[in-house]
Amino acid sequence: MNELPRLLRLNPQDNVAIALADIAAGDVVGDEQVKLLQSVKQGHKVAVTPISAGENVVRYGQIIGQATHEIALGDHVHSQNLGMGDHAQDYAHASEAVAVTPATAERTFNGYHRADGRVGTRNYLGILTSVNCSGSVAKFIAEAAEKSGLLDDFPNIDGIVPITHGTGCGMSSNNEGYDTLFRTLSGYAQHPNFGGILLIGLGCEVMQIADLVGGREIRADGALRYMTIQQTGGTRKTIEKGLTELRSIAADANTATRKPAPVSELMLGMQCGGSDGYSGITANPALGVASDMLVQHGATTILSETSEIYGAEHLLTRRAVSVDVGEKLIERVRWWEDYTARNKGEMDNNPSPGNKRGGLTTILEKSLGAVAKGGHAPLTDVYLFAEKIDKKGFVFMDSPGFDPCSVTGQVASGANLIVFTTGRGSVSGYMPTPCVKIATNSEMYARMSDDMDINCGDIISDGVSLQDKGEEIFEMFIRVASGEQTKSEELGFGGVEFVPWQIGAVM
């Protein structure tokens, strides 16, 4: 058996390579026979050519920053000698969009067909709150339902999900923050993974129940009830009425059963968090293969986290189906530059301490690895946070890089599956939408196997191809969409991960 390389140069243009194991100072490694000047941990970068101060540092054949000091051959390249620098790019809108070849054979999953034509992968009841002030009562209703065994008579229902949050009041009723929350709550109320919704407000909040439900049909199946605590008569009466309404909704939701649906009805929200130096080598490009396979079957895949594509947005604009779509993405990037500046932040503040311990240095480097989740399919459109996604194919939804918030937006936009790649480890779930967790490296997968669904570390350790791993991921998506539980579902995650994006002043 051939010994695994300890240093990997990803592109002939790169002047750094990635350590595939902890390497000691003085060791001579790689095809270039580089002698390390310092010890370097797995996932970190090593200079494979001398790099002058001010010279671009290149990984994936792309600029990830500039040397802040002279870097010698064999030096560890990281925060001590690598900074952002100028990263202007040619966006070349719509210059590289290549149509996807449709799959030759239709694949199906077993899902819940809803009255509006969408298909759910789960069948929950939701207790949705308009404001923080109704959050405790929503939880009281869910607890009372569990204690009373309300769902014992409804075996086709997966559970009851109280959806609580920290906003809904103390905000303007006519600004970007209000519109964003409105879209988010409306998206959850209509989500195909809910068989029915109970909507609860306090009564005096800015985000009024009457505005959420007034003048429009929220659910085509009519499986929505709503009330305010003040009008109902306080906590106890609201709990009593809530249980009655839940039982009524449950009777309808329980009639739903899983039936075959084409894979084109899947909408996948793609996330990465706790990324490391392997993320852009293993899990993210393997997910990119699976994303392309879904698109070939007519499905929708969503890339998000605008602050984590910064510096790699030119790779997406080139794949846009039109100049207008490319410009929509850049408009969001410019919004983020202004947003961070006026809040006294910087886009390069994004890499977390955990990211840096895992070998990532700048947001440019992190973004290049993150974008790999999107495969190679054309970029069909760009959406605002929680905006309803109405096109098939590979799309982008604007969001922060804060994972629970970003996933909240994707679910509100219609995602009925979530996938999450991680190199440092992640423990979270996103009811009502199941989340598949993918490890970038075998060490973390072994350490946190109770939380991880798929290991992509074997791409490095065993030479598994990206294509084969992508197919493995694709097949798991179909199984999970058909009802197989993920690790986060088995552990009961999903009760605290609803995090609407709060934009604007708290008043």
Question: Explain this structure to me?
Answer:
This protein is an alpha/beta fold and 507 residues long. The chain has 15 helices and 23 strands. The strands form six sheets. Strands 19-20-18-17-21-22-23 form a seven-stranded parallel β-sheet, sandwiched between helices. Strands 1-2-5-8 form a four-stranded antiparallel β-sheet, with no helix packed on it. A four-stranded parallel β-sheet has the order 13-12-14-15, with helices on both faces.
Q: How many strand units?
A: 23
Q: Work out the radius of gyration.
A: 24 Å
Q: Give the biggest sheet.
A: 7 strands, parallel
**Could you say which structural class the secondary elements and strand pairing correspond to?**
alpha/beta
What layout of secondary structure does this protein have?
Elements: E1 7-8, E2 16-19, E3 28-29, E4 34-35, E5 45-47, E6 56-59, E7 62-67, E8 76-77, E9 82-83, E10 108-113, E11 119-120, E12 124-129, H1 135-148, E13 159-163, H2 176-189, E14 194-201, H3 209-213, E15 224-228, H4 229-232, H5 235-253, E16 259-262, E17 267-272, H6 283-296, E18 300-303, H7 313-317, H8 323-342, H9 353-357, H10 363-371, E19 379-383, E20 393-397, H11 403-413, E21 417-422, E22 435-439, H12 442-447, E23 454-455, H13 458-461, H14 466-481, H15 487-491
Parallel strand pairs: 12-13, 12-14, 14-15, 17-18, 17-21, 18-20, 19-20, 21-22, 22-23
Antiparallel strand pairs: 1-2, 2-5, 3-4, 5-8, 6-7, 7-9, 10-11, 10-16
